[in-house]
Amino acid sequence: MAIWLLPFFSVLLLVLSATWPVISSNSEGDALHALRTKLSDPNNVLQSWDPTLVNPCTWFHVTCDNNNRVIRLDLGNSNISGPLGAEIGQLEHLQYLEFYRNSLEGKIPEELGNLKNLISMDLYENNFQGAIPKSLSKLKSLRFLRLNDNKLSGSIPRELSLLSNLKALELSNNDLCGTIPSEGPFSSFPPQSFANNTRLNGPELQGLAPYDFGC
Ligand SMILES: *[C@@H]1O[C@H](CO)[C@@H](O)[C@H](O)[C@H]1NC(C)=O
Ligand SMILES: *[C@@H]1O[C@H](CO)[C@@H](O)[C@H](O)[C@H]1NC(C)=O
């Protein structure tokens, strides 16, 4: 490198090092703020979500770990409505996604499959529609998946049987169709987990082929 370029590069480095920590530490705040702008919030439960703060860790209903990474979102029973934005997939450290008993609508974003640390996904009692994304099969830490009481359609992705840590699955009261998988954790879920999906067939039992309602 030509010697005369050195001052230029040191100034550039200085500028980068001064701005980069701020940008990186608030990327999760930016993602949450983007989620907020798509939601209707008549009870103002998201009022404290101020994107000009250095991180979202002081916002109500948001919990961070010691490294200021978001690990919980607790927005059950909050009277919020609208779509769940794809930005949710940027909260890589999230462990608990609690959005139950609201009026969320639209599709369950496939970007949720990016949340490798997720332990619990509670989206029950909302108005979600469309298919259960196959990408949820990437959530190897997932223990609780409750999507009951929505308007979900299509078949249960067979790939979900790869979720070896899954302890509870609730899919009742939707519009799912096809055959319930029987492998992996599905061997221990009770029939109530799938109740009130009129076009859903039980798993194959003792060689009896289930009647296929189609999808
Ligand atoms: C929920 O929001 C609606 C407006 O969208 C309002 O009429 C209703 O009172 C709210 N419900 C509760 C329990 O706060
Ligand atoms: C299925 O629907 C019936 C009638 O709405 C309801 O009483 C029952 O609790 C539902 N079952 C489950 C497991 O949610």
From TrEMBL:
InterPro entries per UniProt: LRR_dom_sf, LRR_N_plant-typ, LRR_R13L4/SHOC2-like
Disease resistance R13L4/SHOC-2-like LRR domain location: 74-173
Domain of life the protein comes from: Eukaryota
Residue ranges of every copy of the Leucine-rich repeat-containing N-terminal plant-type domain listed in the record: 25-65
Position of the signal peptide: 1-24
UniProt key word Transferase: yes
MF annotations from Gene Ontology: kinase activity
Key words of the record: Kinase, Leucine-rich repeat, Receptor, Repeat, Signal, Transferase
UniProt protein name: Somatic embryogenesis receptor kinase 2-like protein
Organism (species): Carex littledalei
